[in-house]
Amino acid sequence: MDAKLLEILVCPLCKGPLVFDKTRQELICKADRLGFPIRDGIPTMLETEARELPADEEIKA
Ligand SMILES: [Zn+2]
């Protein structure tokens, strides 16, 4: 995951910053508690593709 690419990517919902979860290969929006999958190195920035993070799931990074 390119660090510069990560800098320009924002959450499509709240336009907030995202954090990269290396383990799950997801971009996480802490505000919305959504995880956007990265497939073949390409972030999927679609709300419909995002995973809702369970309330008990710890957000790393
Ligand atoms: Zn968001």
UniProtKB/TrEMBL annotation:
In the N-terminal section; belongs to the LpxK family. In the C-terminal section; belongs to the UPF0434 family. It comes from Silvimonas terrae. One of its GO terms (cellular component) is cytosol. Transmembrane segments: none annotated. This is UPF0434 protein HNQ50_001826. PANTHER family: PROTEIN PREY, MITOCHONDRIAL, ZGC:162634. SUPFAM superfamilies: Trm112p-like.
